[in-house]
């Protein structure tokens, strides 16, 4: 028979439609509106999980986010591990299976779409139960921007499927009306299936919206499966409800044992009988009212136990009207199971009394309610123990945060509605007449809840009293922790692992604290809870990544000429966020052959490189020269208009930071270049000093990196090519000398041409407005010029002993160490200067830049090889330094390298060993300039 | 896991001790243990403002390695790793030390250069290290995406086979138990609020549980060391920052190596029980709040899913933060202070856990003899004056 | 995600800013006259209080201006702008 535990009517499921799903390989039917847990209960499936270490069977225990047992592996659709069956909406074709506390990651990538969005609001209300709805409504009618978020498919909270009345009508009518009124307001957003998972600083809250999961296999692929909301809220109302907690006893883990309100909820919200014959055991009025709900739903009540002994109240009369007598002062002392491990009977007793066995298939237990203080705690609030509530409730208020309803320990419906409305009104900073809450038919309380954690012979049976079902942690473990000397709930949590599983101990965390307090002889409040940390419920990695995947992981920066590089077959190198051509292999060429050809073109004829990625900063103002004198180690105020100079920058600690060529375009206008990777850092650095230390200097700095495209035209043939491209420009060495800059028209494009060289060859860097970059590249290429990439650039510059900041230096290298002492002025002050005279920084035997020639000219040393005197020495082998740059040189016809070596050129001519992966190559220390040491080629 | 029946006692403080260690984190507990074991100094109290080992020791991602670039760093971390290798036996407690190897991925040519440089330096320093090609990385950890189409593809990796993980809580409890057995007092809920002074010397501490005299005082309070130093009248070159970490739910085993990618801020291992343990980058601002900003977690997850596509369906179960005390050169400060009889061990930044036994050993020796242990000498406070930094930050750019 | 009160742009998400550490660490007038120890104080020895902290932020993705705020390093609350 299909769905044997489905009630004849009732519940918020669509009985007109049937869906089919599979669980543990068996097909079942359910109705839209069911969760997997209600569908399993409807079909009489009692075993939904196993204990991870004990292997004991476990059943559905709760009805919402508190569920400790029913975590399943979903195999249909995109698939997901460790999904809570109590919140998983059943769909046609759902395939799921039970787990033992541990999920599986499916091998194929998840190609579901995950989105992120950002929102601001005046008031965020978390939870759309009665208190939250009242709060949202009171805030919204003032015109405030309100977001109301709730994790369930529709608002209502605990009113869903319940039998309460508001204003004389079924409460769900009021819920529907309120929802409709909110939805109609332009400044209100109601987010359902949306769990607020984290409360961060500055009222920044994060929420997970499940957009298509309930549609199952019919979910449209173009809609994001989930969306991550980032909400900056002016004020926050937390109407997050409460979590029911059990009472623990020996063998409290059997399928068939569940929380009492959850059991009643299944009967009324889903129209499912959680069992046919039940024992209800509680420590507060709510458990007794759950018994009323169960019996009205058609469950036979075999016994109703209350650990308290109270005078008769309204709930007792309600039960007696239904033929049920409450056994006062009674608790559960044990349970029996059938052959499959499912509950078959409950043993009950009065304290110290004789136990009585009651056959049943449901044990509904409730030790009380724990307000869901998670977000309040994350916001900085400290829950305090309340004797009246027998629970931790919000303590001191957190500024601009209100806790209302069950989350504040206000369980009475009328009070919760009033509290919610009041908070919403205040949060909206409203004045005037507050809207009245709806009238309720609330029942009167009978007695205060008892703080009851355990019943039965728990000391004798401590290893069968489970304090954490998902971790199989028991009372015995807690006792052992205390016996080992532990006095902190944090230690006990770590020792026992209780509270660390996927349910985060939502049902039994406070219970564990209560037990610990008993063992230590301390008040519960003195022990305190462990810290509640985000997220409230788990968030998938895929959602957190959102769209920042693939190429969108980080922006990709391309120069205007990028498509030409691609067309030319360039292999690219990542330099910061830039894509730079590394080399341009022709058919059949590898890196080595391509670079050799490119190098020859540059040294022997003419070659070109896209240097648009170099950082470019425009500095303007009357004090730029003075400013640059302070920033660079060398002097720039003396630079004449039209001239360029190479400069070196240090951080305050004296270590080389960046280098580049700066030109003076006009008396109050300089054009500064930086290395590709440091452009943003240098601009920040300049602005920091200008704004925070030297605001009196009249200088403005603007990044123009993206505004200029640039081509380096390099080689003995470059002058001839430039003269053809720029016929009006006098390119003679006399008219356009080294280290000068000229405005010109190049290939019909307005250009700024620098005569500078990073290769030692005659060369020009032609800068044009970025949108002409492609045209310039094409024009130069049309002149028969060979393009080259960063690898060739490195070979050429290294042959000349030119360093690359960040490769031949590493944050521990001064300009002197890098062989740039010539660029360090002693006649003026600059940033970092003072650091250079510190005792260690001034040492003569610091690591300094040298050249290396491998004894074997065919051996190209590994960059990163370490230099030693004796490669066979026992470890630790003293190291003198390391290889920073190493290449084969076409011009030299051999390999060569740059290195940092302690003592630097004092070792000139000495032989060391460069060690890489255990192989040692003899190398001779040389001057770092290998090619054209006299600088004859620079002028062509 | 079966723990011993008894771990440590919860005594009230005595009137005075030979050494008072401030901070019962991993370093404080290890220091107390080695003071007693190596130097016979057992009249020691370790004062803890909260619960024992509840600070960074309870919050780190448990990675242990010694493949640091500079000689001084490699020496102290390798000393530590050698102690780790015998620690379960030494302390008679299974700390779940697992030498499953640590990979540091390279994603750019500069990363490759740096990695090769570090591997060679490690080997010459006697630290096990290998350079792996992308294919070798894939063979070792099949779930890593080594496609060269990635935004920042894997170009290789350094690998230290002897590196790995241990269970942080058990390490702390093992040291606590061993120290307790040797007579050390572990005093929880005892916050140091001030110092007793006699001229230039410190003679004890004021605490939330009364005055405690001390012949020597050892600061061992990680992120809070600056606060203690300030009340002693000197400053330390530290900034305390939030450092976040997270775990997933329990998952069937998919990863048996520790993988770190400094360039894109991922480090991950899968713990014994099955949860993925991951660390994020340091939050930018100074903070003692033991919480960080959410965007840090988001960018870390983006990088993680890119490198490990199989992780997309895993869930973040819990996030938290520690307070890391970061020094300008990302190396510790270990040794004497301007105040007589006060010693300092701080500035471990993101590297403190792996140093636990080594730092404790070296610090105990320094306290016992009143002079820096040879392995501590390079980490003296005066390096910030002379400029002799041990710059693991600028040079190697590998943290954690 | 702190909400950083930029005095020019109003409160903005932390991701728009660069953190600048302790405020009011003035660059010495004449570094050359300082001892190594005094120079080290300037370079490295900065306050690291647990509590209110005068610090700098740089609105990199906004107005690109440096400004000082006072923030509490435990609650992360910013002092109300004066």
Automatic annotation (TrEMBL), chain A:
| Entries under InterPro entries matching the protein | 2Fe-2S-bd_N, FAD/NAD-bd_sf, FAD/NAD-binding_dom, GcvT/YgfZ/DmdA, GcvT/YgfZ_C, GcvT_C, GCVT_N, SoxA_A3
Which ranges carry the FAD/NAD(P)-binding domain? 122-384
**Where does the record locate the signal sequence feature?**
none
Keywords (alphabetical) are: Oxidoreductase
Domain GCVT N-terminal residue range list = 561-828
Task: Identify the residues that the record assigns to the Aminomethyltransferase C-terminal domain, covering every copy.
Answer: 847-932
Molecular function in Gene Ontology = oxidoreductase activity
Q: Is Cell division there in the keyword field?
A: no
Describe the location of the SoxA A3 domain by residue ranges.
464-547
Q: Which domain of life is it from?
A: Bacteria
Entry's family note: Belongs to the GcvT family.
Under the heading PANTHER family, the entry gives:
AMINOMETHYLTRANSFERASE (PTHR43757), AMINOMETHYLTRANSFERASE, MITOCHONDRIAL (PTHR43757:SF2)
This protein is called what?
Answer: Sarcosine oxidase subunit alpha
Organism field: Asanoa hainanensis
From TrEMBL, chain B:
Q: Which organism is it from?
A: Asanoa hainanensis
Q: What is the lineage of its organism?
A: Bacteria, Bacillati, Actinomycetota, Actinomycetes, Micromonosporales
Question: Which E.C. number(s) belong to this protein?
Answer: 1.5.3.24
Q: Which cofactor does it need?
A: FMN; FAD
Q: Provide this UniProt record's keywords sorted from A to Z.
A: Cytoplasm, FAD, Flavoprotein, FMN, Nucleotide-binding, Oxidoreductase
Under Pfam families, the record lists:
DAO
- What protein name does the entry list? Sarcosine oxidase subunit beta
Molecular function as annotated in GO: nucleotide binding; sarcosine oxidase activity
State the family named in the UniProt similarity comment for this chain: Belongs to the SoxB family.
Assigned GO CC terms: cytoplasm
- Record's superkingdom? Bacteria
The Rhodanese domain is annotated at 19-63
Q: Share an example GO biological-process annotation for this protein.
A: tetrahydrofolate metabolic process
- Its top-level enzyme class, in one word, is oxidoreductase
Automatic annotation (TrEMBL), chain C:
Which GO terms fall under biological process for this protein? Answer: tetrahydrofolate metabolic process
Q: One matching Pfam family, short form?
A: SoxD
As given in the record, the signal peptide range reads none
Return one GO MF term.
Answer: sarcosine oxidase activity
Name the InterPro entries for this protein.
SoxD, SoxD_sf
Cross-referenced NCBIfam families? soxD (TIGR01374)
Give the protein name, as stated in the record.
Sarcosine oxidase subunit alpha/sarcosine oxidase subunit delta
């Amino acid at each position: 028979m299909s769905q044997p535990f489905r009630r004849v009517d009732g519940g918020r499921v669509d009985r007109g439609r049937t869906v089919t799903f599979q669980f543990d390989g068996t097909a079942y039917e359910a109705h839209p509106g069911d969760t997997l847990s209600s569908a399993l209960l409807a079909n009489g499936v009692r075993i939904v999980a196993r204990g991870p270490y004990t292997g004991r069977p476990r059943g559905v225990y709760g009805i919402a986010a508190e569920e400790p047992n029913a975590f399943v592996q979903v195999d249909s659709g995109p698939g997901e591990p460790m999904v809570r069956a109590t919140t998983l909406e059943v769909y046609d074709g759902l395939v799921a299976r039970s787990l033992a506390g541990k999920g599986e990651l499916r091998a194929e990538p998840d190609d579901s779409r995950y989105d992120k969005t950002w929102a601001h609001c005046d008031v965020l209300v978390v939870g759309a139960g009665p208190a939250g709805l009242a709060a949202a409504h009171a805030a919204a009618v003032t015109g405030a921007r309100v977001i109301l978020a709730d994790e369930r498919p529709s608002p209502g909270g605990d009113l869903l499927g319940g039998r309460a009345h508001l204003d004389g009508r079924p409460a769900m009518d009021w819920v529907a009306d309120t929802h409709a009124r909110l939805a109609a307001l332009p400044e209100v957003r109601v987010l359902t299936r949306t769990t607020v998972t984290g409360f961060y600083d500055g009222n920044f809250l994060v929420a997970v919206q499940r957009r298509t999961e309930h549609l199952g296999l019919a979910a449209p692929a173009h809609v994001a499966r989930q969306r991550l909301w980032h909400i900056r809220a002016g004020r926050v109302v937390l109407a997050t409800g409460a979590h029911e907690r059990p009472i623990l006893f020996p063998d409290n883990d059997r399928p068939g044992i569940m929380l009492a309100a959850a059991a009643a909820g299944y009967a009324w919200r889903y129209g499912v009988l959680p069992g046919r014959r039940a024992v209800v055991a509680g420590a507060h009025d709510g458990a007794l009212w759950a018994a009323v709900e169960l019996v009205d739903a058609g469950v036979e009540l075999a016994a109703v136990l209350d650990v308290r002994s109270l005078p008769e109240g309204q709930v007792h009369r309600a039960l007696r009207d239904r033929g049920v007598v409450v056994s006062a002062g009674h608790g559960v002392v044990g349970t029996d199971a059938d052959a499959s491990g499912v509950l078959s009977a409950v043993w009950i007793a009065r304290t110290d009394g004789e136990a009585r066995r009651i056959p049943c298939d449901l044990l509904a237990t409730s030790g009380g309610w724990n307000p869901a203080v998670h977000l309040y705690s994350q916001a900085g609030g400290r829950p305090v123990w309340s004797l009246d509530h027998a629970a931790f409730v919000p303590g001191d208020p957190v500024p601009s945060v209100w806790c209302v309803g069950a989350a504040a320990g206000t369980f009475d419906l009328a009070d919760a509605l009033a509290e919610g409305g009041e908070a919403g009104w205040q949060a909206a900073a409203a004045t005037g007449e507050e809207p009245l809450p709806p009238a309720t038919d609330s029942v009167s309380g009978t007695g205060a809840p008892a703080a009851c954690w355990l019943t039965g012979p728990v000391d004798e049976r401590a290893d069968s009293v489970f304090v954490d079902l998902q971790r199989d942690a028991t009372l015995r473990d807690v006792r052992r922790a205390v016996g080992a000397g532990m006095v902190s709930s944090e230690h006990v949590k770590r020792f026992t692992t209780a509270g660390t599983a996927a349910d985060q101990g939502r049902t039994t965390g406070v219970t564990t604290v209560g037990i610990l307090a008993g063992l230590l002889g301390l008040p519960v409040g003195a022990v305190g809870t462990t810290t509640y940390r985000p997220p409230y419920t788990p968030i998938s990695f895929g959602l957190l990544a959102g769209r920042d995947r693939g190429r969108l992981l980080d922006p990709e920066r391309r120069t205007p000429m990028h498509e030409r590089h691609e067309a030319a077959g360039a292999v690219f190198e990542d330099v910061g966020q830039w894509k730079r051509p590394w080399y341009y292999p022709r058919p059949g060429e590898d890196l080595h052959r391509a670079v050799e050809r490119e190098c020859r073109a540059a040294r022997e004829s003419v070659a070109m490189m896209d240097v648009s990625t170099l950082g470019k900063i425009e500095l303007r103002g009357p004090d730029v020269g003075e400013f640059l004198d302070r920033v660079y180690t060398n002097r720039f105020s003396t630079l004449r208009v039209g001239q360029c100079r190479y400069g070196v920058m240090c951080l305050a600690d004296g270590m080389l930071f960046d280098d580049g060529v700066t030109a003076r375009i006009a008396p109050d206008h300089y054009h500064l270049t930086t290395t590709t990777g440091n452009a943003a850092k240098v601009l920040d650095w300049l602005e920091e000093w200008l704004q925070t230390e030297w605001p009196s200097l009249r200088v403005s700095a603007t990044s123009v990196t993206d505004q200029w495209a640039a081509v380096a035209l390099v080689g003995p043939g470059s002058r001839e090519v430039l003269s053809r491209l720029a016929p009006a420009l006098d390119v003679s060495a006399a008219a356009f000398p080294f280290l000068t800059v000229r405005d010109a028209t190049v290939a019909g494009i307005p250009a700024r041409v620098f005569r500078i060289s990073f290769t030692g060859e005659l060369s020009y860097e032609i800068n044009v407005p970025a949108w002409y970059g492609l045209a310039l590249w094409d024009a130069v290429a049309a002149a028969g010029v060979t393009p080259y990439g960063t690898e060739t650039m490195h070979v050429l510059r290294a042959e000349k002993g030119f360093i690359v900041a960040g490769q031949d230096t590493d944050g521990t290298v001064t300009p002197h160490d890098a062989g740039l002492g010539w660029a360090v002025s002693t006649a003026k002050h600059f940033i970092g200067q003072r650091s250079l005279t510190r005792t260690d920084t001034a040492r003569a035997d610091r690591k300094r830049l040298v050249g290396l020639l491998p004894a074997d000219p065919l051996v190209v040393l590994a960059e990163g090889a370490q230099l030693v005197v004796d490669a066979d020495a026992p470890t630790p082998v003293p190291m003198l330094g390391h290889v920073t740059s190493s290449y084969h040189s076409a011009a030299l016809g051999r390999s060569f390298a740059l290195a940092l070596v302690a003592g630097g050129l004092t070792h000139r001519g000495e032989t060391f060993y460069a060690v890489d992966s255990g192989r040692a190559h003899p190398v001779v220390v040389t001057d770092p300039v290998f090619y054209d040491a006299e600088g004859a080629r620079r002028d062509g | 896991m079966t723990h011993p029946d008894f771990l440590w006692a919860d005594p009230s403080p005595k009137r005075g001790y030979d050494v008072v260690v401030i901070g019962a984190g991993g370093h404080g507990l290890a220091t107390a243990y080695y003071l007693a074991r190596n130097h016979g100094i057992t009249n020691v109290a370790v004062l803890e403002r909260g619960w024992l080992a509840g600070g960074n020791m309870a919050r780190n991602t448990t990675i242990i390695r010694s493949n640091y670039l500079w000689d001084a760093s490699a020496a102290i971390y390798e000393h530590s790793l050698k102690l780790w290798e015998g620690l379960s036996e030494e302390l008679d407690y299974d700390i779940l030390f697992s030498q499953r190897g640590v990979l540091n991925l390279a994603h750019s040519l500069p990363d490759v250069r740096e990695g090769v440089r570090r591997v060679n330096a490690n080997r010459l320093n006697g630290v096990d290290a290998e350079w792996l090609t992308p294919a070798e990385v894939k063979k070792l950890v099949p779930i890593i995406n080594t496609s060269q189409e990635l935004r920042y593809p894997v170009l290789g990796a350094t690998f230290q086979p002897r590196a790995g993980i241990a269970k942080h809580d058990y390490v702390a409890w093992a040291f606590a138990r061993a120290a307790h057995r040797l007579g050390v007092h572990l005093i929880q809920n005892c916050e140091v609020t001030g110092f007793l002074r006699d001229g230039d010397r410190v003679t004890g501490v004021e605490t939330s549980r009364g005055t405690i005299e001390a012949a020597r005082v050892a600061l061992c309070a990680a992120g809070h060391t600056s606060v203690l130093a300030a009340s002693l009248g000197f400053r330390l070159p530290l900034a305390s920052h939030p450092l976040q970490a997270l775990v997933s739910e329990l998952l069937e085993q998919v990863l048996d190596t520790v993988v770190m990618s400094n360039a894109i801020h991922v480090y991950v291992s899968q713990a014994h029980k099955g949860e993925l343990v991951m660390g994020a980058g340091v939050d930018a601002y100074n903070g003692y709040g033991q919480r960080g900003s959410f965007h840090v977690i988001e960018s870390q997850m983006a990088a993680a899913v890119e490198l490990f596509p199989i992780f997309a369906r895993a869930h973040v179960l819990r996030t938290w933060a520690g307070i890391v005390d970061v020094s300008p050169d990302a190396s510790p400060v270990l040794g004497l202070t301007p105040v007589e009889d006060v010693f300092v061990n701080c500035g471990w930044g993101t590297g403190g856990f792996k140093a636990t036994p080594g730092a404790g050993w070296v610090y105990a020796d320094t306290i016992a003899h009143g002079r820096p242990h040879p392995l501590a000498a390079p980490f003296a406070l005066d390096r910030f004056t002379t400029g002799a930094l041990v710059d693991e930050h600028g040079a190697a750019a590998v943290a954690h | 995600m702190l909400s950083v009160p930029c005095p020019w742009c109003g409160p903005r998400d932390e991701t728009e800013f660069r953190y600048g550490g302790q405020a009011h660490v003035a660059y010495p007038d004449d570094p050359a006259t300082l001892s190594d120890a005094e120079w080290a104080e300037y370079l490295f020895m900065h306050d690291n209080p647990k509590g209110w902290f005068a610090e700098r932020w740089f609105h990199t993705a906004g107005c690109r201006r440096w400004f000082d705020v006072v923030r509490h390093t435990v609650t992360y609350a910013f002092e109300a702008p004066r």
